[in-house]
């Protein structure tokens, strides 16, 4: 047993602090890169479909490795896993910072991803075993404050760095901090773990990698290639079939790599479903607002980052407050209230115009982030609270994996809606404009008309995507009414094992 993980002892604040700093750096790096993609395209001479692999490849590595983290957490100590994860992240950051061709940059990003994939489930598991259920909401709230600070400052910091320095400075900025955190972990983490005799089933790893990797790749590619592309539906079909085989194989093992029995606990299953659905809707704001403000309104990257900053700050500072409210009132009140706010504000985002003010977007986005902050952490914590302790690694791994998959699905769905509706609106608006014209238009007038129609059509496509997103959020709202306050379920296997040990001791 891990000596520092005794739930009756004082929480290991030193371990938690080191883990949180490491997770913060990993989160910050992800938010820094998004605004830098246009600069990377120009400098390395790659197109949009190629540069998106910096995001898609990161998600794929996460989707492949996260399911194995339940096994890794059971097998190895926190210290060992943290040093490996932070070492990989640091090595990837250094490699990406010196990249002068795209394949090297992509390799650096994927090495970073391999470290990040271990970091997040590891931190969540330590949080769960370190605090009793009645204090977990507050603990998770503080955890959320620290992690949500990364997306709060990331876009603005990135916009400033890109305007003043080369994009590689994003990685050079993170590198010394990552090295410092790695050294802190090496000297401060002293936990030990008794040797655990479990082995990783390589067939399960292969099935998991193919299944989750196929789904992530298929949905991530749908936005650029279209749903009718053989590579898109082919990889999704292969992913689904392989995932079914993976689940069936796991059910045969006494100690599976990823235990799907977590879904036998109703509050965990419900919380996972709500989080997945909301995660799909959440990507509308992250994806569509930057497109609207930069492409249609012509706002600079720095001002676009500043526009998102108040909402991210609201989400960060609300995290400890919602944590305390969760401990006091439970998850349903927070989730339903937050989802009402999310649905209404997402619908209002579907009413954007060419003249919507900067202030209006900032306020609307901030209120939307307030709603989302009332849902994500409380719902997730309520679901994990129902699991017996031995299922914690599997619950956190499952949640993180499903978040990756739902994010890919949400992105693909909303990009498809926006693209298809933009094409439809372009045809309709062009036809109306041509009917209103008198005489034969000049080439210059026609070009100007096409540009105006194209911008208006894209705006309408973005509005349609936000409307679909509001419907998705409404589904999560309906599900939230079924939330009940969780208490830890009795682990029948653990009880029977203790009884058997007690009988054996008495007989001896």
UniProtKB/TrEMBL annotation:
Transmembrane spans: 12-33, 53-74, 81-105, 111-130, 142-162, 168-188, 200-219, 231-248, 268-293, 299-317, 329-349, 361-380, 401-419, 465-483
Membrane topology: Multi-pass membrane protein
The protein, known as: DHA2 family efflux MFS transporter permease subunit
Family recorded in the similarity comment: Belongs to the major facilitator superfamily. EmrB family.
Upper taxonomic lineage: Bacteria, Bacillati, Bacillota, Bacilli, Bacillales
Cited InterPro entries: EmrB-like, MFS, MFS_dom, MFS_trans_sf
Organism: Bacillus salitolerans
Cell compartments where the protein resides: Cell membrane
Keyword Cell inner membrane: no
Alphabetized UniProt keyword annotations: Cell membrane, Membrane, Transmembrane, Transmembrane helix, Transport
Domain of life: Bacteria
Residue span, Major facilitator superfamily (MFS) profile domain: 15-488
Pfam families (alphabetical): MFS_1 (PF07690)
């Amino acid at each position: 047993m891990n000596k520092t993980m005794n739930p009756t002892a004082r929480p290991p604040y030193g371990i938690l602090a080191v883990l949180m700093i490491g997770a913060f750096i990993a989160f910050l790096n992800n938010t820094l890169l998004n605004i830098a993609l246009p600069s990377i395209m120009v400098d390395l001479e790659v197109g949009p479909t190629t540069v998106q692999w910096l995001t898609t490849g990161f998600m794929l590595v996460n989707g492949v490795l996260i399911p194995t983290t339940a096994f890794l957490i059971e097998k190895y100590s926190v210290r060992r896993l943290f040093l490996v994860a932070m070492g990989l992240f640091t090595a990837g950051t250094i490699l990406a910072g010196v990249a002068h061709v795209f394949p090297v940059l992509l390799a650096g990003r994927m090495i970073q991803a391999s470290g990040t994939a271990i970091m997040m489930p590891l931190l969540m598991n330590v949080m769960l075993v370190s605090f009793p259920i009645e204090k977990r909401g507050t603990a998770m709230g503080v955890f959320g404050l620290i992690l949500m600070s990364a997306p709060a400052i990331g876009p603005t910091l990135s916009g400033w760095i890109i305007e003043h320095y080369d994009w590689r400075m994003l990685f050079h900025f993170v590198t010394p901090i990552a090295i410092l955190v790695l050294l802190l972990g090496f000297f401060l983490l002293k936990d030990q773990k008794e040797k655990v005799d479990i082995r990783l089933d390589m067939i399960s790893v292969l099935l998991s990698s193919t299944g989750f990797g196929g789904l992530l790749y298929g949905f991530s590619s749908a936005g650029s290639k279209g749903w009718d592309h053989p590579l898109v539906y082919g990889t999704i079909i292969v992913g689904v079939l392989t995932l079914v085989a993976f689940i069936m194989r796991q059910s045969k093992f006494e100690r599976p790599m990823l235990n799907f029995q977590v879904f036998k606990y109703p509050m965990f299953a419900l919380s996972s479903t709500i989080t997945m659905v909301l995660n799909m809707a959440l990507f509308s704001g992250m994806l569509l607002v930057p497109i609207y403000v930069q492409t249609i309104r012509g706002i600079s990257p720095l001002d676009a980052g500043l526009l998102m900053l108040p909402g991210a700050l609201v989400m960060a500072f609300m995290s400890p407050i919602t944590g305390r409210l969760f401990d006091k009132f439970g998850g349903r009140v927070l989730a339903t209230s937050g989802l009402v706010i999310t649905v209404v504000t997402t619908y209002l985002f579907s009413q954007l115009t060419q003249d919507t003010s900067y202030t209006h977007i900032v306020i609307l986005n901030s209120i939307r982030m307030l709603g989302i902050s009332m849902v994500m952490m409380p719902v997730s914590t309520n679901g994990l609270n129902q699991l017996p302790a031995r299922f914690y690694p599997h619950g956190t791994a499952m949640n993180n994996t499903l978040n990756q998959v739902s994010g890919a699905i949400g992105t693909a769905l909303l990009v498809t809606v926006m693209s298809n509706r933009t094409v439809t609106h372009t045809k309709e608006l062009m036809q109306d404009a041509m009917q209103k014209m008198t005489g034969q238009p000049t080439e210059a007038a026609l070009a100007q008309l096409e540009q105006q129609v194209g911008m208006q059509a894209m705006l309408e496509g973005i509005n349609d995507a936000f409307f679909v997103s509001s419907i998705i959020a409404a589904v999560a709202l309906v599900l939230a009414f079924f939330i009940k306050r969780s208490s830890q379920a009795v682990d029948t296997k653990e009880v029977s094992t203790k009884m058997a040990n007690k009988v054996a001791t008495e007989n001896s």
